[in-house]
Amino acid sequence: MTAYTLYLILLALVAVERIAELVTARRNAAWSLERGGREYGRGHYPTMVALHTALLAGCVLEPWWAGRPFLPVLGWTALAAALAAQGLRWWCVTTLGPRWNTRVIVVPELPLVAAGPYRLLRHPNYVAVVVEGLALPLVHSAWWTAASFTAANAVLLRVRIRCEDAALADSRTRTRLVGATP
Q: pLDDT tens, 106-164?
């Protein structure tokens, strides 16, 4: 079995993991909306889906099309980083429980989570995304995919983090207004 075939198997496993994320997100969105959750940032969500799909497509196509080799020192190091990113991502998912989502949905009156990786980092899930977006392509020397995803993702994350911060601020403001006494 060639290194590229093994890489394709890894990418297929990541694709299955993405499907598991989307199933979890759909279930969690229903949970949040049933509790009065409000969605923010719908406009950037299709761009995020397209970018993450393009990452996986680039990982498949660039090594094949450009004849990128598997470089053991880079490949094994990148694989370790990509696996660590998956661990961090699922730590975020389990810490947030039904509040975790691929969309920005805020349930009013729920306190911010300050456990798990959130006690250490403000946006740990995005740390996982950044690491994975750089590392996964580099497992098989897909330099262009790693660089282009990282650049595009940096722009998207600026939008996404601003959206999340504004959503949380809006939710806290609305909660204070609803709970205020005359």
A: 998 888 899 999 999 989 999 999 999 999 999 999 999 999 999 999 999 999 999 99
Please give the CATH topology (third level) of the domain spanning 3-179. Four Helix Bundle (Hemerythrin (Met), subunit A) (1.20.120)
Q: How far apart are alpha carbons 1 and 145 in whole angstroms?
A: 24
Residue ranges covered by each domain of the chain: 3-179
CB 51, CB 152: distance < 8 Å:
yes
Q: Strand locations in 41-139, DSSP E?
A: 104-106
CB 67 within 8 A of CB 78: no
* pTM of the full structure: 0.89
In 3D, which of 27, 25, 170, 31 has the Cα closest to residue 100?
25
Query: What is the token pair recorded at 159?
Result: 């939008």
Closest CA to 141 of 48, 66, 63: 63
Q: Which residue has the tokens 């980092």?
A: 121
What does the angle CA 74 – CA 16 – CA 7 come to, to the nearest 5 degrees?
A: 30
